[in-house]
Amino acid sequence: MAFRPTNKSKTPPPEETFEEAAYLKALGEKQKLVSIKLQGGEIVRGWIEYYDRNMLRLTREGAPNLFIFKTEIMYIAEGEIKAVKVRKAKAASAGSAPLKPESSGGE
């Protein structure tokens, strides 16, 4: 049996599914602790008090509240996430032997 293309075109997916708004609303209603990783690598923690199309308000304890543009958000995770620093080594990328861990100086 040969494949015959049809002249009917499929409907393109919608640009907005409104799932983001539903997720942010649920997080805000529960005052669930979230960690937000920003494009610059900084991680901020708090709960979402307000959101709209372009930004959200993160309420934090012991720190100023933040208005964050959604374009600056890399991702949002429920609960706490830990920042992991990766040490870049020029020698490792050049194919030489791996670097030894730095000593604490007490040897």
Characterize the structure shown.
The longest helix is centred in the N-terminal third of the chain and has 12 residues, at 19-30. With 107 residues, the chain is α+β, with helices and mostly antiparallel strands. The protein has helices spanning 19-30, 90-93; strands at residues 34-38, 43-51, 55-59, 66-69, 73-78. It has a domain at 21-78: Roll (SH3 type barrels).
Write the layout of secondary structure elements.
Blueprint lengths: L18 H12 L3 E5 L4 E9 L3 E5 L6 E4 L3 E6 L11 H4 L14
Antiparallel strand pairs: 1-2, 1-5, 2-3, 3-4
The number of helices is 2
State the secondary-structure class: alpha+beta
Got a strand count? 5
Range of helix content? 10-25%
Mean pLDDT: 80
Short summary:
The chain is an alpha+beta fold and 107 residues long. The protein has helices spanning 19-30, 90-93; strands spanning 34-38, 43-51, 55-59, 66-69, 73-78. It is elongated.
Q: Which structural traits does this protein have?
A:
107 residues, alpha+beta, SH3 type barrels, 5-stranded antiparallel sheet, 2 helices, elongated
